[in-house]
Specification:
The chain contains ten helices and seven strands. The protein has helices at 80-89, 100-114, 121-138, 152-161, 169-175, 180-191, 195-212, 217-223, 229-240, 244-253; strands at residues 5-9, 16-18, 22-37, 40-45, 48-52, 58-74, 94-97. Strands 1, 2, 3, 4, 5, 6 and 7 form a seven-stranded antiparallel beta sheet that branches.
Length: 254
């Protein structure tokens, strides 16, 4: 087994349980799954995960469509410099919730993993990056929710990576560890715009950029997360005072 054997997996809906002679780091990526580690159960979805030390009995199952990242770390093949950090990280089984930056990092790395051949050493490098980032995360004090500022750059990165699908306010609020209502009021106070309006603007600005690059109206609508071409055209015209088709035509004429 490599130093960090890393895989993207879908868990079956049938419950399974086992233990193994290596540590395991699990990140939720898509959908929902459920883990039970020594009698303590919890849902593991995007932004959540668990640390399963070697020889720890645990049960798991998927809940509909799901995908997780699993990193297996053998206890007998670690570099000397990693033995102490890994031992401390897997000192006890635990669940965790990632901060905004690591949620974005996780999605970025998993996009790379999804197009990487199984035998590529890049997969091991991806796993090691997540493992070391997790070690830093677990050993860095997090600010209290009431004191934390909204990280607009991280939110922008998250929106850009999920532009093609619906993004809920609850999802964005969870990125910065706030309730949806608190996030809404804090965001509007900080940026003088609601989160919903902000996401819509990001979609429209992205779509206009793609139209100017020669994309069709339908393709721009689909990739910027609109439910239909008509909904896209209506929103685009309201925001830019021009239809997407006219915008694209003007670019082609120049």
């Amino acid at each position: 087994m490599p130093i960090a054997d890393t895989k993207l997996l879908t868990l079956p809906e049938t419950a399974n349980h086992h233990d193994h002679q290596y540590h395991q780091l699990v990140f939720g990526l898509e959908g929902d799954t459920e883990f039970d580690i020594q009698g303590r159960g919890q849902h593991v979805k995007l932004g959540h995960g668990c640390l399963v030390p070697s020889s720890t009995d645990h049960a798991f199952c998927g809940m509909g469509d799901n995908r997780i990242v699993v990193i297996n770390i053998p206890t007998d093949k670690l570099d000397a410099g990693l033995i102490d950090p890994i031992s401390r990280l897997f000192n006890a089984p635990s669940y965790f919730t990632l901060d905004t930056q690591r949620k974005v990092l996780l999605q970025s790395i998993c996009r790379e993993m999804a197009v990487t051949p199984p035998e590529s050493p890049l997969l091991q490098a991806c796993g090691q990056a997540l493992l070391l980032s997790m070690h830093n995360f677990m050993n860095t004090p997090r600010p209290r929710n009431s004191q934390s500022a909204i990280d607009k750059t991280a939110l922008d990165q998250y929106i850009a990576m999920n532009m093609h699908r619906k993004i809920s306010i609850s999802e964005l609020a969870a990125l910065v560890f706030l309730s949806p209502s608190h996030f809404h009021s804090r965001f509007k106070e900080a940026f003088n715009i609601t989160p919903h309006q902000y996401v819509l603007q990001k979609r429209l600005e992205y779509a206009r950029q793609k139209l100017e690059e020669g994309w069709t109206v339908m393709r721009a609508a689909e990739h910027s997360g609109f439910s239909s071409q008509s909904a896209f055209t209506h929103a685009f015209r309201d925001y830019f005072a021009i239809t997407p088709a006219r915008c694209r035509k003007l670019v082609k004429e120049h």
